[in-house]
Amino acid sequence: MADGKRRFQISSAFDIRTIIGALMGIYGVILTLLGIFNATDEELAKADGFNVNLVNGLILLGVSIAFILWAFLRPLVVEEVPPEAFDDHKAGPE
Amino acid sequence: MDTTVLLAADDTFRLDTNFSDYLIIAIYFVFVLGIGVIAKRQVSSSIDFFLSGRSLPAWVTGLAFISANLGAVEIMGMSANGAQYGMPTMHYFWIGAVPAMLFLGIVMMPFYYGSKVRSVPEFMRMRFGTGAHLVNALSFAIAQLLIAGVNLYLLATIVNVILGWPLWVSLIAAAVVVLTYTTLGGLSAAIYNEVLQFFVIVAALLPLTLVALHKVGGIDGLTDKITDSPGGAEQLSSWPGTNLTGIEDPFWSVVGIVFGLGFVLSFGYWTTNFVEVQRAMASKSMSAARSAPIIGTFPKMFIPFIVVVPGMICAVLIPEMIDLKAGDDSSGVQYNDAILLLMRDLLPNGMLGLAIAGLIASFMAGMAANISAFNTVFSIDLWQQYVKKDRPDGYYTQVGRYATIGATVIAIFTAIIASGYSNLMDYLQTLFGFFNAPLFATFILGMFWKRMTSTAGWVGLVSGTGAAVTVALLSEDAFGSASLGVIPLSGQGASFVAASAAFVVDIAVSIVVSLMTQPKPATQLRGFVYSLTPKDQLRDPLAHLLPWYQRPTVLASISLVLVIALNIIFW
């Protein structure tokens, strides 16, 4: 990679941070709703009253927002290295 | 096939799933396959397919590095060890992983990344020629197929439990999903999925642990109950871990853990295992490649709190597990079932689905990692090197895709073999002992001793592996009923000793053979031996521009201090 020909550009490629944020966000919404509307006494008794759906749902929403903010504030930058840089891999470094 | 596990599973683990659980699991699969499809658009050369175009940031490769290892063996095996032995299990993380990962990042990664090899066996070939390379590439490829089989088997067991599909249908269905995304997107798809999987696993296991801790009466409740349980207070301190090693003398137990697990097994596994190293090699720069395993140490040292601790809680909370530990195995439950039992008894619908998704994620991560490492070694190190040289680049990407399909089919069959072993950890430790312990000896000697010859490379590997097999055969149970019982060692202790024997024999044989044969000319060893490599090649030219939190040595120091602190706190 030390070829000195680094170029930078904003990538249109997908960013794993938004994907993580999206999945955690969807899970957060589902769990929070379940925790609010679907927490029967029987279910709560399983965990001695700990409403785990609600708590984890809210945490996941927080995680989701953090990832999406991170991706938004520090957008993906791709280093483009010309394909020739890899042509020598068979010959080794000599 | 060992059907007892499955029958127990059918009867015992009827998880009370409903629509919300299935919804959560289904959404996860949409994301997994979606990543495969998107990653496919980025694959335009074999480097893209096998090494993600060497373009990924360190936090991504670092998490993938950990996630690739966070498979079925780790989750089920380590929670099982937690239930059975307690805190000594922490050694697998704090002694058996973190120091070796730091060593990989600081000392070895510059050689791997700087020499631009595409796989660990390829490094072996450049340093020692084809003899050692063939031994390494073949043994690695075969080991991956076996371990992929273990991961697949557990994955299928979960599907079998939740959906009630027959095991063979579950096996094929699970295999097809992994196959789809690894074939489409190559290593990128595998790595991006591993990062996603990491978060799903944590989102599932952390709340499970907290709920279990709440139920058992907090940390005080847990320590009280464990002190009163079979096994006693010994399970609350990590040293000397005599119950884990099976070595009665505390001094030799510590030696076994530090040298056998902490040095030989762990360095052999973490520094030469291409499954993990491949993730770091996909990084975008030398500094990022070195940082990958180092960043990975941070989650690695805290993962046991959501894997081992739930196992420990299960052993004092869930009736079937309490019975098992007291010696009554009539319920058919095994230690490996610890996490499943907690899920069954503690989680409401919704969280239950997320926990199932987390387990599926973990097993798929493990299997995809094995398969993507296998297809690289098969295509580059076996097919390109020994069968069809000098074809256009696209040809090898195609070979990689076919290798993925072949590996998945074989993994289905090895899954059936793996199911015959009750204690998965023993079985895999034994394998690692055979393949990895002598590898580390050969690598480290070869990197720092220019006199070491090509012949010494492969002779050392073969005799080291032979030594491990011999010890395992002579032990009481390392090979199950095939072991002869001549040496009074069993369980994890036998694995530690077998690995240590492999290391010592490899070093001794390599030195003797080197002194009797001709070394390679110095010009061919540039980039592969420390004293013959220009220092610039082992450094990142832009390293001085990085902020402190992206510098490998700074991160490694922080990690080291933390892991020492953990060892002291949980002494």
Automatic annotation (TrEMBL), chain A:
<keyword id="KW-0472">Membrane</keyword>
<keyword id="KW-1133">Transmembrane helix</keyword>
<feature type="transmembrane region" description="Helical">
    <location>
        <begin position="52"/>
        <end position="73"/>
    </location>
</feature>
<protein>
    <submittedName>
        <fullName>Uncharacterized protein</fullName>
    </submittedName>
</protein>
<keyword id="KW-0812">Transmembrane</keyword>
<feature type="transmembrane region" description="Helical">
    <location>
        <begin position="20"/>
        <end position="40"/>
    </location>
</feature>
Automatic annotation (TrEMBL), chain B:
<feature type="transmembrane region" description="Helical">
    <location>
        <begin position="134"/>
        <end position="156"/>
    </location>
</feature>
<dbReference type="GO" id="GO:0005886">
    <property type="term" value="C:plasma membrane"/>
</dbReference>
<keyword id="KW-0472">Membrane</keyword>
<feature type="transmembrane region" description="Helical">
    <location>
        <begin position="427"/>
        <end position="449"/>
    </location>
</feature>
<feature type="transmembrane region" description="Helical">
    <location>
        <begin position="59"/>
        <end position="80"/>
    </location>
</feature>
<feature type="transmembrane region" description="Helical">
    <location>
        <begin position="399"/>
        <end position="421"/>
    </location>
</feature>
<feature type="transmembrane region" description="Helical">
    <location>
        <begin position="456"/>
        <end position="474"/>
    </location>
</feature>
<feature type="transmembrane region" description="Helical">
    <location>
        <begin position="22"/>
        <end position="39"/>
    </location>
</feature>
<dbReference type="InterPro" id="IPR001734">
    <property type="entry name" value="Na/solute_symporter"/>
</dbReference>
<dbReference type="InterPro" id="IPR018212">
    <property type="entry name" value="Na/solute_symporter_CS"/>
</dbReference>
<dbReference type="Pfam" id="PF00474">
    <property type="entry name" value="SSF"/>
</dbReference>
<feature type="transmembrane region" description="Helical">
    <location>
        <begin position="553"/>
        <end position="570"/>
    </location>
</feature>
<feature type="transmembrane region" description="Helical">
    <location>
        <begin position="351"/>
        <end position="378"/>
    </location>
</feature>
<feature type="transmembrane region" description="Helical">
    <location>
        <begin position="251"/>
        <end position="271"/>
    </location>
</feature>
<protein>
    <submittedName>
        <fullName>Sodium/solute symporter</fullName>
    </submittedName>
</protein>
<feature type="transmembrane region" description="Helical">
    <location>
        <begin position="494"/>
        <end position="516"/>
    </location>
</feature>
<feature type="transmembrane region" description="Helical">
    <location>
        <begin position="162"/>
        <end position="183"/>
    </location>
</feature>
<feature type="transmembrane region" description="Helical">
    <location>
        <begin position="195"/>
        <end position="213"/>
    </location>
</feature>
<comment type="similarity">
    <text>Belongs to the sodium:solute symporter (SSF) (TC 2.A.21) family.</text>
</comment>
<keyword id="KW-0812">Transmembrane</keyword>
<feature type="transmembrane region" description="Helical">
    <location>
        <begin position="292"/>
        <end position="318"/>
    </location>
</feature>
<dbReference type="GO" id="GO:0005412">
    <property type="term" value="F:D-glucose:sodium symporter activity"/>
</dbReference>
